[in-house]
Amino acid sequence: MFPKSLTGIAALFLIAKCGVALTPKMQTVKDISVGVGEQLPSGWIGLGARSQAMGGTLAASTIDGTSLFANPAQLTSVRRTEILGSLVASRIRGTADTGNPATRSELSATGTALNSLVVSAPYPVYRGGFTFALGYARPSDYGQRMNRTGIVVLQGQTFRQSDILRQEGGLSHYAMGFGVEVAPTTSMGLSLRWQHGSVDVRRDVTLVAQGMALPDSLVGRYRQHNSIDGLGVVLGTHTVLPAGFQMGLSVSTPTRYTLDGTWGDEYHEAIGANVYHYDYLENKLKYKIRGPWEFGAGLTWTTYALTLATDVWYADWQQARFDGSPYGATSGIDPDTFFETRYRSSLRWHIGGELLVPVVNTYVRAGYWTGSEPFRGPLLDSGEALTTAGPSRAYSFGAGWLIDRVFALDVAVVFRTGRMETAQSVEKTGDRRFSVSAAFRM
Amino acid sequence: MNSTPRDRRSLAGLLVLGSLSLYGCYTVLSHPQLAPRQQITENGTVVETDQCASCHTQSDLWSFHHRGWYSHYNSYFYNQYDPLFFRSRWYGDSYFYGRWVSYRYSPWWYYPGSRTGAWHPELPAVGRGQMRDSVNRVDPRDSFVGLPGYGPGPMPSFPRSALPLNTGMAGSPATSRVTRDSTSADRGSAAEGRPVRIEPRNDAPAPLPVSQQPVQQPAATKSAEKPQESEDQEQTGEQSRGRGDARNRPSGSQSR
Predict the structure, then answer these.
(1) What interface predicted TM-score (ipTM) does this complex get?
(2) What is the rounded distance in angstroms from the CA atom of residue A376 to the CA atom of residue A389?
(3) Is the pLDDT of residue B173 over 90?
(4) Rounded Cα gap, residues A175 and A133, in angstroms
(5) Smallest CA–CA distance from A299 into chain B, residue
(6) What is the pLDDT of residue A132?
(7) Of B116, B113, B96, which is closest to residue B148 (Cα–Cα)?
(8) Average confidence score pLDDT of chain A
(9) Average pLDDT for residues B139-167, to the nearest whole number?
(10) What CATH number is given for A4-441 in this structure?
């Protein structure tokens, strides 16, 4: 497929998610995916400024309409008709140390998106609590920027590389549900959640062979667009325990995602005195994935002005399955073991707190969370991962005010970092997000 | 969205399971009908309380609200001062209570509590855009603000008197005494011989359930403990300003 001198380029390009045609030297690099796994659950950012400021805790500490998406049982804590909206302004930055000697490159971008919009309506009750809610949220996004520029050695050949990745998109959650008190200290909730969104991936690669009078080169671009739909149910319970503790449990049933997308690449090779051009060839894909169960548990302790909360969220993505594999019989990819070998369980820990400062009547908040992404990346035949992704970590701070007893304003800033190593490059992400939530209770 | 029969079966199963789990749950959307001829007098006094006791308990005469800082085991109502910050009044207007509790915990179908501890409609002069909880206000710092989550909830299906029901259980509030209405009997009214409840003074707020009594009672609340003179007033038709206002309004008119 590729000239021998450019097998390394081809290999790199394949790692860039192309995936089907493999050069003879890269037969050991099996079944580079088209990015299925990377496009579903990554980029968690949280819901609402209050929760984000408290380290993303949601399972037992939510007191507003955002609980519709995480633990609808907590909707019963909303006692007045509430309209809540959140906006997130983000600055994402990717830094890559590539090559030998390592060269550091950086790429950043900014964006603004609606994070949540929820209407909660408590039904008047004689005893207990019963609250409906309907809303939209975008708890995760796919924003990523990375620029890998430097001298790399591929298949024994030295190249100067410029590899720029841009990823945009998000998965919006539309949900409706309710929470009801089933005992003086216990409530239950259920919400039906429809996810809809899309992701666009652009990757532009330039490789120029070094040490040649007329250097071989490749200029290529890769494009991918996926539309994603998913349907699932969230069940939750919330219990008031003695001594100021509260406990929340949440279970999300396996979401059935339908992916409808296109991908293709176009490249331009210069080999010796010859130039070859390959037109853009678009491929279509449509398939389904049944995601895993997701479990969340939280504990909150409240005393006077202080609230401390912690959450843990778990999903075993090795249990995910294709329902209509995107890979043909000739691809060499076994869809039955795809998720077993390329995915892992993901675990997120959250901890946070808020303190009401007297006199100025301001809540100050801080938190921290860490979590691992489920996608391990492509594997060698030996089972060795080409990519080693470290856990994401985030620190958050925020404040909240109540204005005229009916209007609450919360702000948060979240600093998130991540690290991933692939071959000779070390990639670091550093995101900074500002969130503002405004809630009006009638 | 394409959904398979398996999807639909799963969804239906969840809905059935959810419905079953809610059957007989704690939340009561409306108060059960009571047969007036058998169980209450014309002025709303409950005389047969067996059915009430099947739902109500001594500590749970009213709606119990689901909130983190209050439970049967740990009531911060009894703690007037926050030890974390210079013994600031936690329930003072400048700290938490008056400002945040109304926002977070007071249901919209309740009237906000007044500073005297009674439940009545918010004063017309205190509306949006006006100073209500400003830290610069002088008077509210040591005044008592109505407790959240304490109130009648949606209207029962008939007018009832203002005070907590006498459930017939040991330790029931003494404010719900049942006695003979000699005044009515003297007049030969239709209520002759029927027991009626002695009401407190109309200008006195209703006492709180025992489990929710604040430590520091306001002056107005203390006045409710004075000898009652309401036996002569209960037939006058005078509208009370206390919690009874809300409870005696026609059904469906309780919203703000």
Answers:
(1) 0.73
(2) 7
(3) no
(4) 8
(5) B68
(6) 93
(7) B113
(8) 82
(9) 36
(10) 2.40.160.60
Contact B26 A302 (CB under 8 A): no
Residues A66-97 as b or e (16 or more Cβ within 10 Å = b): bbbbbbbbbbbbbbbebbbbbbbebebbbbbb
Q: What is the pLDDT averaged over residues B220-228?
A: 40
Nearest to A240 by CA among A63, A432, A48, A35: A63
Hey, where are the domains in chain A? Answer: 4-441
Return the structure tokens found at A87. 């906006």
pLDDT at residue number A277? 85
B99: DSSP letter: I
Closest residue in B to A400 (Cα) is B100
pLDDT band at residue B36 under the 50/70/90 scheme: low
CA distance A308 to A243: 13
Question: Residue A307: its chain B contacts at CB < 8 A?
Answer: 68
Q: How far is B188 from chain A (nearest CA, A)?
A: 36
DSSP B184: H
Residues of chain A predicted below pLDDT 50: 1-37
Q: Minimal Cα–Cα distance from A12 to chain B, Å?
A: 37
Which of B63, B90, B99 is closest, CB to CB, to A125?
A: B63
Two tokens, residue A6: 């450019």
Q: Are A318 and A289 in contact (CB under 8 A)?
A: no
Alpha carbon distances (Å) from A154 to A28, A421, B138: 14, 16, 76
Mean pLDDT of B29-34: 68
Q: Best mutation site among B1, B2, B27 for testing chain A: the one with the most A CBs within 10 Å?
A: B27
The closest CB to that of B108, out of A79, A238, A361, belongs to A79
